[in-house]
Design a protein that fits this description.
The protein has 398 residues and is mainly β. Helix content is 8%, strand content 42%. It has 3 helices and 32 strands. The strands form 8 sheets. Strands 1-28-27-26 form a 4-stranded antiparallel β-sheet. The chain starts with a helix and ends in a 17-residue tail after the last strand.
Length: 398
C-alpha cells in the first residue's frame, strides 16, 4: 500500500466531513459510533461546590446550575457564583419566558433578574409563605414555570406563586416524589397512591396509575401525538396513552436503564432521548428503544452520577454531576474513540479498506466493520498481529 493511497483515503474522509458540515449544519440523528466529544468543567474551574443539582439554559445560551454553594452562571467564557441570602444549597433552577431565573434552596425560594455587566439581583418570594411551621427545614427540589404561576416543589408540598400570593398544594397526608410538566399538562406522583394529573386545582388520579405503583416516575416525555414516554427509576420505560392507559414498553434499552437507575430524562430531537442515571452516566436511545450512545466515566464523563440534565440552544447536552459539570456534543458530526484503559495503545496509522477500518498501533492491528463512514462498530484486535521486532522485514507488511 503506497503513501499516495493513504493520502487519498484521508483527503476523502476529511472532505466528506466538511461537505456534511456545510450542507447539513446540525446532525439530525445522533451518530451511534465512537463517543461524542465531552467537555469537562471541574470544580477548580467554576470554583464552587462539587454537586450540581439542577440545570437551566436561558435564551442567550447562558447556563445556570443549582450548585451546593449557590447559583452558578456560565456565559461561555466565565463562571460566576451568586449565593442565596441564607447561603443554603441551591437545589433547583428554572427560567421563565420573561427571563426570570427561579431558584430554590433550604427554607428559601425566589427569582433573579439581570443587572448591567452580567450581575443578578435576587427577589425573595418565600417571605409570602403564611405558615412557616415547617418551611425553614424544607428544600425546594424542583421548579415548574407556567405562564401565570410557578410551582416550588418539596417532597411534602408545592408552594404555588400566583398573583403575587403563595398557596400550598398537598397530597392529603402522602408525600410527593417529583412533578412533571408535559406540554400543557402537569403530573404529580404521590407515594404510595401513584401518578395524578393536576387539573382545575385538583389532583386527579391517572387511569393507569396502578401499573406504576412503587416504581418511582423520574421523567415524562413526549413520544407521539397521542402517547407519552414514562421513565421509572429501576423498572424501565412505559407508554401512557391520552386516556391515561399505561403499558410497559418492552424495548432493548430497558435492561441497561433499569440496572443503571434512571434519575432524569430529556427529549432530544428526531425521536431520541437521553437519560441521566445514578450508576452509569448518560444513556441515549432512539425511538425504537435501542441504545445508540452510552457516555460514562469510561469514555468522557467526570462522574457516573447524573444529578441533572438539560439541552442547550445548539441541542447539545449539559449534565450536572455529583462532582462537576460536563457538556456532551451530541449534535456534532464528529465522534471519538478514546482508549482510556490503554487496550489499543498508540495509533500510528489507519485506513478504510473494503468496508472495514484498520488501525495500526504499537500493540498490533485492530479492525472494525463499517456500514458507511458513520457506522463504526466495536474495534477488535486481529490475532497474531503483534509486531515481532527481531528479524522484522518492514517490506513484508504491505
Amino acid at each position: 500500500m503506497t503513501t499516495k493511497k493513504y493520502s487519498n483515503v484521508y483527503i476523502f474522509w476529511f472532505c466528506s466531513i466538511l461537505f456534511f458540515l456545510m450542507h447539513h449544519g446540525y446532525c439530525q440523528t445522533i451518530i451511534p459510533t465512537g463517543t461524542p466529544f465531552v467537555k469537562q468543567y471541574k470544580k477548580d474551574q467554576y470554583k464552587a461546590g462539587n454537586q450540581n443539582w439542577s440545570l437551566a439554559v436561558d435564551k442567550e445560551g447562558r447556563v445556570y446550575s443549582a450548585n451546593t454553594e449557590g447559583l452558578l452562571q456560565f456565559d461561555g467564557q466565565y463562571w460566576r457564583i451568586f449565593p442565596l441570602p441564607n447561603h443554603s444549597t441551591v437545589r433547583s433552577v428554572a427560567i421563565g419566558k420573561d427571563g426570570k431565573i427561579y431558584t430554590g434552596g433550604r427554607g428559601e425560594f425566589g427569582y433573579w433578574t439581570s443587572k448591567p455587566f452580567g450581575n443578578l439581583s435576587y427577589h425573595s418570594l418565600s417571605k409570602l409563605v403564611q405558615d412557616k411551621t415547617y418551611f425553614p427545614n424544607e428544600e425546594i427540589w424542583k421548579i415548574i414555570v407556567e405562564d401565570q404561576r410557578v410551582f416550588f416543589h418539596t417532597f411534602s408540598k408545592s408552594y404555588i406563586w400566583e398573583n403575587n400570593r403563595i398557596r400550598q398544594l398537598t397530597a392529603k397526608g402522602e408525600p410527593f416524589l417529583f412533578p412533571h410538566q408535559l406540554d400543557n399538562k402537569l403530573f404529580f406522583e404521590q407515594l404510595p397512591s401513584g401518578l395524578h394529573e393536576f387539573k382545575q386545582d385538583k389532583l386527579i388520579p391517572v387511569k393507569g396509575k396502578d401499573v406504576l405503583k412503587d416504581k418511582n416516575v423520574l421523567a415524562i416525555l413526549p413520544f407521539d401525538a397521542t402517547t407519552s414516554l414514562i421513565a421509572t427509576s429501576r423498572n424501565g420505560l412505559y407508554l401512557m396513552k391520552a386516556d391515561g392507559t399505561i403499558l410497559p414498553w418492552p424495548v432493548p434499552a430497558n435492561q441497561l436503564l433499569s440496572q443503571s437507575q434512571i434519575n432524569n430524562g430529556l427529549y432530544l430531537y428526531d425521536g431520541q432521548y437521553a437519560f441521566g442515571t445514578i450508576q452509569n452516566g448518560v444513556i441515549i436511545i432512539n425511538k425504537n428503544g435501542q441504545v445508540i450512545q452510552h457516555i460514562n466515566k469510561n469514555n468522557g464523563l467526570q462522574n457516573n452520577t447524573v444529578l441533572s440534565i438539560v439541552k442547550d440552544n445548539q441541542k447539545n447536552i449539559w449534565v450536572g454531576l455529583d462532582n462537576g459539570i460536563d457538556r456532551i456534543e451530541i449534535n456534532s458530526p464528529l465522534s471519538f474513540y478514546t482508549d482510556f484503559v490503554g487496550k489499543i495503545g498508540t495509533v500510528y496509522t489507519s485506513i478504510i479498506y473494503q468496508g472495514k477500518i484498520y488501525l495500526g498501533t504499537n500493540k498490533g492491528l485492530f479492525s472494525s466493520e463499517m456500514e458507511g463512514i458513520d457506522q463504526l462498530q466495536f474495534i477488535k484486535f486481529l490475532p497474531n498481529s503483534k509486531f515481532k521486532w527481531s528479524g522484522l522485514d518492514i517490506s513484508t507488511i504491505w
